[in-house]
Amino acid sequence: MTSLVTPALRGELAPTGTLRVGLNLSNTLLVSSAPADGEPTGIAPDLGRELAGRLGVPVAFVRFPSPGELVEAVSSGVWDVGLIGADPLRASEIVFTPAYIEIEATYLVPADSPIQRVEEVDRPGMRIAVAEKTAYDMYLRGALKHATLHHAQGGEATYELFQREGLDAMAGLKVQLLNDQPKRPGTRVLEGRFTAIQQAIGTPIQRTAAAAYLREFVQDIKRGLVAELIAKYRVPGVSVPPA
Q1: Phi, psi of 125 (to 5 degrees)
Q2: What are the tens digits of pLDDT across the range 108-126?
Q3: What pTM value is reported for the model?
């Protein structure tokens, strides 16, 4: 169980009286598409509603087309909690909870590519297309020793870059790459993974009491609620990390 919600804690987590939840719309595994004036559905919005319910405040969703734009907006104070991939490079302004979901990331390659394993991608001369400022982009920036990254804005633009420039690989979330493969002939998805994206809840770094409460909240929802939501929305390729 999470700690008692005091007026001071409520004021730190939802200073406007409404919990403003930042959503990354590009992660369609966790946020289902909705009309511009409609309410979003999916695992991440439902967790935002659950958190607001426990705080006893209304919820409002602040939508961003990419995780990078969500992160950059933290200094503007337009959101109170953001549901995004945790990454150390983002930790100067945002404090993250432990992960509530893990999502495998791998590569798409041309069907005739000699590359057979994920480990073979990081070699001299290899060029990788990646959506800028995604969690797996941030991971690869620190992990790659030889291959170079080539950035685009969003998944479709990244695939277009991969095709247009004849790049060697395209990084992405494994389940999304597999789902999109039927409309991308002449490609294949590598088995295995180069990382597992840690989906977490972040809050502005100065909100220390809020951060402590959110850590307890995540540990609590990992005991059952997250698995229930995965089943409810039939989301493949994700898992709940150990509590």
Answers
A1: 90, -15
A2: 999 999 999 999 999 999 9
A3: 0.79
